[in-house]
Amino acid sequence: MAAPQEPGGDAAFARRIDPAREPGLSPQQRLLMAEVERVQRRRALQRRLRGRNALLALSIGAVAFGIYGYTFYSVSQERFLDELEQEAEAARARAQARAESAAS
């Protein structure tokens, strides 16, 4: 048994042919070969698109997660600032009350 030949060699099972120039092919065989090539190209395109779709889905998910996270962060910061403002107002009121009681 012979060893498999390198790619691009002249092995009969791997020989590339041009259907338009091959004299021994019937029109039905040429049509079948053209259909098989179209199907293979379509599958390759679908694989590429599937990968791009997955990348797009991950990107959209990351953006949505980022917006969601930022919203929670900003709301918590807003509450913190509200609490800080309330404490500042209470401190001002105490300082004013002390100033008024010291002035009297």
List the helices and strands in order: H
Shape: rod-shaped
Mean pLDDT: 83
Question: Number of helical segments?
Answer: 1
Give the count of structural domains: 1
The largest β sheet comes out as: none
Low-confidence stretches: none
Structural class: mainly alpha
According to DSSP, the number of beta strands is: 0
Organism: Grus japonensis
Membrane topology: Single-pass membrane protein
Protein name: Cytochrome c oxidase assembly factor 3
Main location: mitochondrion
Write the layout of secondary structure elements.
Layout: H1 27-103
Q: Outline of this structure?
A:
The protein is mainly α and 104 residues long.
Question: Which key features would you list for this structure?
Answer:
74% helix; 104 residues; mainly alpha; 0% strand; rod-shaped; single chain
Characterization of this structure:
By secondary structure, the protein is mainly α. It has one domain (17-103). The chain is built from one helix and no strands. The radius of gyration is 38 Å and the shape is rod-shaped. The N and C termini lie far apart (116 Å).
